[in-house]
Design goal:
Blueprint: H1 16-27, H2 33-39, H3 43-46, E1 48-51, E2 54-57, H4 65-77, H5 80-88, H6 103-106, H7 114-135, E3 149-153, H8 160-168, E4 178-182, H9 187-194, E5 202-207, H10 214-228, H11 234-238, E6 241-245, H12 248-254, E7 261-263, H13 280-286, H14 288-307, H15 314-328, E8 333-338, H16 346-358, E9 376-379, H17 390-395, E10 402-407, H18 414-433, H19 437-446, H20 451-461, E11 469-474, H21 479-500, H22 509-524, H23 535-545
Parallel strand pairs: 3-4, 3-5, 5-6, 6-7, 8-9, 8-10, 10-11
Antiparallel strand pairs: 1-2, 2-11
Helix pairs in contact: 1-4, 7-13, 8-13, 13-14, 14-21, 15-21, 16-21, 19-20
The structure holds 6-O-phosphono-beta-D-fructofuranose.
Residues 155-158, 208-210, 213, 216, 270-271, 356, 507, 510 line the site of 6-O-phosphono-beta-D-fructofuranose.
Length: 552
């Protein structure tokens, strides 16, 4: 299908700033990280920025002060200062849906949007009051018993953020009040949770901004059925549900009691919504005070992002370094490796935040982007990854920039925290320094091999090095510093979208999968025999529908 799009503003890659960076990159073609550190013993102290409880070391990127100057020029050429103000002032930065992006307003008590300020403060206090009441055992089910289990039914932004944060602070949960998550339409996801719960003491949170997501509504139906099998009638079942949504009437029609509906503003994007009523499971798990600390940490990062000069601005630096990696060093993915078991879910959360925001191919005016945009984000907790994909990170042919995330102050047993930090910092060093042939040969000789074998094996032990990474140190692990970290990544994503002139806040592509799955569902269930599918899909359906006896 050819691109028929309106012409629009000049594309960023035509700007003098972009052209200057292309030329500058040529001057670095024979430079290595090791050489940059040798030339400037204070590099590590200079190429870092600190704010909101985060220490951001970006010295292990292939860049100089000149690079930073040119990236700054690019940011100004893309009118980043204006774009930042537009975000915080509630302008319609989501141009294709004509909506603002209000996540920062949710956590900023002095938000510019007066209308939103009062409603979001009201929503927050209503939600927090319910969470604290639940934690005190004062919210009861149809049989009069206090709830022992809360199951969040949601997916994407209605699951990933809350799931990650609840998992990050297990010690804050109230004894005897367990929080669970079920997202997939695969009924095993919910059933594995239901197996741990009893109907009379289980509360379901139907979490869906649109109140129309198949997976969530399907799971909610299964949950209703599970309660009904206990003998509960509709009124009694309603005692075991609450909902978080922007669609209040849909929630009421579904059967949610009005006082159990926790609303959110349409202008809050799903992947930016954990700060809203979607965060109810967080407030239940951590308590309203800690939830407010989470928002407060994010608000501190917001203020920093809005006011700090670009060269000290953590989200701006990270966003510009991502542009430098993707568009000038051609690294199209990034690994996020939290050396914090509590943040094992962080890469999953950042996948949606980054890839659903930046996985775009046209600019805000509809022009195809002739340059690369959103990166593939993946990762996993350290040190586990060292026994899995670090071989490729160190010696593979694909170069993958890495974000290491760790805590300066121990969040776990002190000795084990030292092991964690030693491994995290060592991996960043290993990526940078590698192992040259002479070092490898000395190793193989020392192992007692004869000269010929030693020389041969050494070839396999060379590690190229010169591989870039960022290191983010949380001064300590608290709701406040976690809030700052998540806001840091939200704003880095926004910076990248502004440079690429794309809309970070819509997600039109996901609609295609939803509509196609309806058609395939009808073909699978044979509710419509006139459906014409491609021969692959049809052959697969035919095979699926073949009776097991004559399967090949
Ligand atoms: O993946 C599409 C999407 O709309 C996400 O943006 C969103 O977080 C998720 O589905 C769930 O949407 P809802 O909260 O409306 O159920």
């Amino acid at each position: 299908m050819t691109d028929v799009t309106p012409t629009g503003a000049a594309l960023i890659d035509q700007s003098p700033a972009w052209q200057a960076l292309l030329k500058h990159r040529q001057t670095l073609s024979s430079t290595t990280l090791e050489a940059l550190f040798a030339q400037n013993p204070r590099r590590g102290q200079q190429f870092k920025a600190v704010a909101a409880g985060l220490y951001f070391d970006y010295s292990k990127n292939l860049l100089t002060h000149e690079t930073l100057n040119l990236l700054n020029d690019l940011a100004n050429s893309a009118q980043l200062p204006t774009a930042i103000e537009a975000l915080f002032s509630g302008a319609n930065v989501n141009n294709t849906e004509q909506r603002p992006a209000l996540h920062t307003a949710l956590r900023d008590p002095e938000t510019n949007s007066a209308q939103l300020a009062s409603s979001s403060r009201q929503r927050l206090s209503t939600m927090n009051a319910f969470a604290d009441k639940l934690r005190r055992g004062e919210v009861r089910g149809a049989s009069g018993k206090a709830f022992s289990d809360v199951i969040n039914l949601g997916i994407g932004g209605s699951d990933l953020g809350p799931r990650m944060i609840v998992a990050a602070f297990p010690e804050r949960q109230v004894e005897g009040l367990n929080i669970h998550f079920a997202a997939n339409v695969d009924s095993d996801a919910l059933k594995s949770v239901l197996g741990q719960c009893r109907p009379e003491t289980t509360l379901f949170l139907l979490s869906s901004k649109s109140f129309s997501t198949l997976e969530t509504l399907s799971n909610a139906k299964l949950a209703q059925q599970w309660l009904r099998e206990t003998g509960f009638d509709d009124a009694q079942i309603a005692c075991h549900f609450a909902a978080m949504t922007s669609q209040i009437e849909k929630a009421k029609d579904w059967g949610i009691k009005p006082e159990r509906i926790f609303s959110m503003d349409e202008g809050v994007g799903g992947r930016f919504s954990l700060w809203s009523s979607i965060g109810l499971p967080i407030a239940i798990a951590l308590g309203s005070k800690a939830f407010s600390q989470l928002l407060d940490g994010a608000s501190t990062m917001d203020k920093h992002f809005r006011s700090a000069a670009f060269k000290e601005n953590l989200p701006v630096l990270h966003g510009l370094l991502s542009i430098w990696s993707i568009n000038f060093n051609h690294h199209q993915s990034r690994a996020v490796l939290p050396y914090i078991h509590r943040l094992a879910e962080l890469p999953n959360y950042l996948q949606q935040l980054t890839m659903e925001s930046l996985g775009k191919r046209v600019t805000k005016t509809g022009q195809p982007c002739p340059y690369a945009t959103g990166p593939v984000i993946w990762g996993g907790e350290g040190t586990n990854g060292q026994h899995s994909y670090h071989q490729l990170l160190l010696q593979g042919t694909s170069v993958v920039p890495v974000d290491f995330v760790a805590t300066a102050k121990a969040h776990c047993e002190p000795l084990q925290h030292q092991y964690l930090l030693a491994n995290c910092l060592a991996q960043s060093r290993a990526l940078m320094l590698g192992k040259n042939y002479e070092q490898a040969l000395a190793e193989t000789r020392a192992s007692g091999l004869n000269e010929e074998s030693a020389a041969k094996l050494a070839l396999h032990k060379v590690i190229p090095g010169n591989r870039v990474s960022n290191t983010l140190l949380l001064e300590e692990f608290t709701p406040r510093t976690l809030g700052a970290l998540l806001a840091f990544y939200e704003h880095s994503v926004y910076v990248q979208s502004v440079i690429w002139q794309i809309n970070a806040f819509d997600q039109w592509a996901v609609e295609l999968g939803k509509t196609m799955s309806t058609t395939v569902f009808d073909a699978l269930c044979e509710t419509d025999s006139n459906i014409a599918l491609d021969s692959s899909s049809q052959a697969l359906i035919d095979h699926i529908r073949t009776k097991p006896s004559n399967m090949g």
